[in-house]
Amino acid sequence: NEYNIYNLHPSLLPKYRGPYPVLFQLLNNEHILGLTLHKMDSHFDTGDIYLQEQFSIGENYQLINIKLFRLSIKLISILIDNFAKCTINLTPQNHAQATYYCKKDLDKYIITENFNLHEFQRLSKIFSYFPPFKVLIDSQVYNIKSYDISPTPNGKKFDLCDSTVYINIDN
């Protein structure tokens, strides 16, 4: 690669390559999230790694972007300083450990009657930050606008494997 172009990727590469790394880390119940500064190459998120930092995700998903922003400033500052000193050391990614997720992988997270209430609520929280939250009813996929545990006037009854929720859907 004749150019020195770097990318900040919000995962600990080579894990979670692709355009939705934060979303899939949350969906997969990861507790540690990270930021990777890597040199770009001719493929998607496969370039040699310069720096990585990790942090605990915690319960407040709104803080993830703040943490990533602060880490971005830190990593870019280090890159600029070391680039000026010509002290950039890169580490090749271990491609055997790589994972890649894309939009079509979200189909695994469409709610069906096989989900339990705990998982329904966990996914609802995640998709409140990364919409849309989807449900499968009578072979048709709908976007969930909101839900309640108690019956609501406009809520459609939806039975999970261990309880019932009432959802408001986009038609």
Features:
three-stranded antiparallel beta sheet; alpha+beta; elongated; 7 strands
Structural description of this entry:
The protein has 171 residues and is an alpha+beta fold. Helices cover 25% and strands 26% of the residues. The chain has three helices and seven strands, in the order βαββααββββ. The strands form two sheets. Strands 4-5-7-6 form a four-stranded antiparallel sheet, with no helix packed on it. A three-stranded antiparallel sheet has the order 1-2-3. The model has no long low-confidence stretch (mean pLDDT 92).
Our estimate of the beta-strand percent is 25-35%
The shape is elongated
Uncertain runs are none
Task: Supply the helix-strand structural class.
Answer: alpha+beta
Care to count the β-strands?
Answer: 7
Trace the largest sheet across and list its strands. Answer: 4-5-7-6
Fraction of residues in H or I helices = 25-40%
What is the average of the pLDDT values? 92
Distance between the termini: 49 Å
Largest sheet: 4 strands, antiparallel
The radius of gyration over CA amounts to 20 Å
Number of helices: 3
Helix and strand string, N-terminal first? EHEEHHEEEE
Helix and strand topology:
Layout: E1 6-9, H1 21-27, E2 32-39, E3 49-56, H2 62-84, H3 117-129, E4 134-137, E5 140-148, E6 156-159, E7 164-170
Antiparallel strand pairs: 1-2, 2-3, 4-5, 5-7, 6-7
